Amino acid sequence: MNGDRRSGLRAGRRTVPAECWTEVIGRMNAEDKKTLVRGYYQQELNQGNLSLADGLLAPGFISHSPLGGTENGDQYKKAISESRSAFPDLEVVVEDQIAEAEKVVTRWSARGIHSGPFTGILPIGNRVTIADIHIHRVADGQIVELWEQVDTLGMLQQLGLIPAGQGCND
Fold first, then answer.
1. Distance CA 133, CA 150 (A)
2. What is the SS3 assignment for 83?
3. Strand 57-64 to strand 142-150: parallel, antiparallel, or no bridges (unpaired)?
4. What percentage of the chain carries pLDDT values higher than 70?
5. At residue 139, what are phi and psi to the nearest 5 degrees?
6. Does residue 64 sit within a domain?
7. CATH code (residue 149)
8. Sign (positive or negative) of CA dihedral 13, 19, 20, 21
């Protein structure tokens, strides 16, 4: 990530404190928006700093689930909190990003030890690694929408719910 992890993100030649992100994002170019999204992963997902979500997520924020449902901002923050409780050592790594106009596409991976309940699944102590793709839509200085695609089959196999090497067509 560009910038100091403790103080904020890099925007041009200066570091912007996390509490000022929404003020700066409205003036951001594509590279700056990518930096903002990387900062979001670092602060909210890696460090669990969900207080930043109130400034980054628009009041009408919608997260589109891979299964077709949607979540508002409060539901989304709750899901992040539950994921961090289940995987307290969660580490998200941004693998690739593309930005154009209002959208930032991020391919990322997450790793962590399953140490707490996760969507009703009791902890098994396995290290789990998943691959994920997010598309964030940024407008008026905030994240308005999120679309997500996650390797659910791989995650379920690593959690021991589906034998490895078996899928829908096996």
1. 6
2. helix
3. parallel
4. 81
5. -150, 145
6. yes
7. 3.10.450.50
8. positive
Half-sphere exposure of 86 (CA within 13 A, CB side): 21
Name the token pair of 155: 């995650």
Residue reference for tokens 């407008």: 139
Strand partners, 149: 133
| C-alpha pair distances (Å), 30 with each of 14, 98, 149 | 17, 8, 22
Is 165 domain-assigned?
no
169 assigned to some structural domain: no
Two tokens, residue 35: 């930096």
| 8 Å CB contact between 16 and 8 | yes
pLDDT in tens, 106-151: 999 999 999 999 988 999 999 999 999 999 998 877 889 999 999 9
> Between β-strands 70-71 and 57-64, what pairing exists: parallel, antiparallel or unpaired?
antiparallel
Does residue 70 contact residue 62 with C-beta atoms inside 8 Å? yes
Q: Between vectors from CA 46 to CA 41 and to CA 49, what angle results, nearest 5°?
A: 85
Q: What is the span of the domain harbouring residue 82?
A: 8-158
